[in-house]
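User: Let's play a game. I give you a shape written as tokens, and you guess the letters that built it. Ready? Here's round one.
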């Protein structure tokens, strides 16, 4: 008999240790109060040998074990959610680093604008020559498309597909064309008149499509260069001004800041998500605490059968 009593008390202590760890993990007042009350019940049986020790074993079987299983399931579910959130933080951080690595300073952008303007000037001069000579020579400067590849993200104005189509529409009777390029006749005449002196004005982007807008130096004449088709067309100054006033530029700095803010929110949520307990289960635990706090609980041990069934139902529920 003494051996049986000792074994039940040892198992009760193990139950208490498990419940204590879970109460510390969740840092919930009701769970901690439940642990303290369970400890009182244990001590009551431990110090009063005349009490039926089997009732302590029954109490743990009907209540404590089910509560521990329920809390462990919640803990595991929360940990899975936290892992997903931490993975999102990691992916966001990788994106931040990539954006920062690929980002270019405004100083570098303006320096490359000058180089790109020179490349386009030389390409247009070469295009004029090959068209005049009816040559098949490729007229474009080396890496003429690298500028847009490097700077479109973070520096080009966003436009819709309809506007892109409008800016690249032309009358075939008004253009010069060969195997390598298409250029508006009127534009070529203006370029010749101004000795092909051009400056980069702005960039436009629509999805993956990009377009560069240039200005003939010392004039208000604008034209577009559409690299996908090596197309040069005059464009409406008013239209471009409107684009620059109303369109948006997705700045690299904005992308980074948005991701940093998102990670801050996720990190704040992680600490909460780790110990979150559904309201329905909180209420159930609170009801159980009230039940075992009843001074006459030993006389109503059979009532725990119902409570145990509710707990076990919660363990298999989708609430968690």
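Assistant: Ready! My guess for every position:
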């Amino acid at each position: 008999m003494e051996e049986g009593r000792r074994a039940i008390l040892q198992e009760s202590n193990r139950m208490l240790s498990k419940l204590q760890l879970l109460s510390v993990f969740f840092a919930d007042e009701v769970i901690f109060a439940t642990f303290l009350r369970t400890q009182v019940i244990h001590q009551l049986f431990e110090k009063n040998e005349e009490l039926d020790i089997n009732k302590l074993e029954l109490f743990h079987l009907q209540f404590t074990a089910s509560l521990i299983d329920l809390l462990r399931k919640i803990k595991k579910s929360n940990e899975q959610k936290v892992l997903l959130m931490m993975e999102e933080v990691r992916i966001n951080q990788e994106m931040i680093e990539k954006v920062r690595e690929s980002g270019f300073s405004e100083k570098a952008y303006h320096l490359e604008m000058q180089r790109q303007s020179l490349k386009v000037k030389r390409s247009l001069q070469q295009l004029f020559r090959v068209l005049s000579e009816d040559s098949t020579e490729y007229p474009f400067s080396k890496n003429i498309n690298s500028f847009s590849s490097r700077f479109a993200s973070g520096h080009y104005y966003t436009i819709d597909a309809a506007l892109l189509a409008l800016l690249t529409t032309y009358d075939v009777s008004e253009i010069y064309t060969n195997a390598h390029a298409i250029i508006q006749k009127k534009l070529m005449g203006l370029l010749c008149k101004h000795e092909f002196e051009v400056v980069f004005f702005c960039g436009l982007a629509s999805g993956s499509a990009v377009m560069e807008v240039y200005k003939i130096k010392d004039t208000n004449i604008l034209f577009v260069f559409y690299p996908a088709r090596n197309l040069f067309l005059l464009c409406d100054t008013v239209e471009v001004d409107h684009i620059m006033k109303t369109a948006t530029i997705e700045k690299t700095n904005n992308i980074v800041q948005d991701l940093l803010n998102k990670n801050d929110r996720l990190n704040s949520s992680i600490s909460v998500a780790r110990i979150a307990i559904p309201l329905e289960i909180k209420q159930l635990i609170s009801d159980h605490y009230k039940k075992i706090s009843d001074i006459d609980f030993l006389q109503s041990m059979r009532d725990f059968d119902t409570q145990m069934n509710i707990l076990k139902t919660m363990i298999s529920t989708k609430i968690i």
